[in-house]
Every structure is written in C-alpha cells, then in structure tokens.
Amino acid sequence: MSRTSTQKLLTVAEARQQLEARGESVADFARRKNVKAAAVYQVLYGTKKGRRGESHRAAVALGIKAGAAS
Question: Alpha-carbon distance 50 to 30, whole Å?
C-alpha cells in the first residue's frame, strides 16, 4: 500500500504500536510486505533512517516515509 499525500505518515512509535495492536510480529510483517525483517527492525529501533535501499522500502511499508514501495 503506497501512501498518498492525503494519508498521514506515522511516527516510528505509531508504526510500532500498530504492529502490536494487530498482534503482528515484525517477521510476519516483513514477509507480508516482502522486505527483510532486519531492515524493519533497524528502522523501528533507529539504527537506520530509511534513506535508501532495503531500509527505505521498510520505512515506506511501515508508513513512516512517503514513496512507492518497489
């Protein structure tokens, strides 16, 4: 799901809360969105900012950054 300009971007904390609220593990989320679980963890815990590559795809999938998830 790509975010459009009308959809609010999430903070990292909000993205983490949404995963918890759905009862979805990071690994399950990563498989469903076809990104590496390590990249999702890195974005969620601030190790990576999601500027390029796999971490960017993870940030887009989480709804933290705007862009097209490729």
Answer: 15
Name residue 54's amino acid: E
Single pTM value for the model: 0.84
Residues 24 and 5: their CA atoms lie apart, in Å, by 26
Length of the chain: 70
Which tens digits make up the pLDDT trace of 2-46? 555 567 999 999 999 999 999 999 999 999 999 999 999 999 999
b/e 40-65 (16+ beta carbons within 10 angstroms → b): bebbbeeebebeeebbbbbbbbbbbb
Rounded to an integer, what distance in angstroms lies between the CA atom of residue 52 and that of residue 36? Answer: 14
